[in-house]
Task: inverse folding
């Protein structure tokens, strides 16, 4: 699958939540787009990723 423009090999089935955690990100501070559609937080645990998927993870940054 492709994550933020980088090809990633997924050896085992993985949910969106598991992908976020594997990257060391705070799930409350990111938005996830899967194949062009936003994945709601309530669906991240049950949304499983496939090798053909394209994922974009955007972190929210606060500052001034």
Result:
């Amino acid at each position: 699958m492709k994550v933020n423009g980088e090809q990633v090999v997924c050896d085992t089935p993985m949910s969106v939540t598991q992908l976020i955690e594997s990257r060391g990100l705070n799930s409350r501070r990111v938005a996830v787009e899967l194949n062009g559609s936003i994945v709601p937080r309530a669906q991240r645990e049950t949304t499983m990723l496939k090798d053909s998927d394209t994922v974009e993870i955007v972190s929210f940054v606060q500052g001034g």
Notes: Helices lie at 16-22. The CA atoms of residues 32 and 57 lie 5 Å apart.
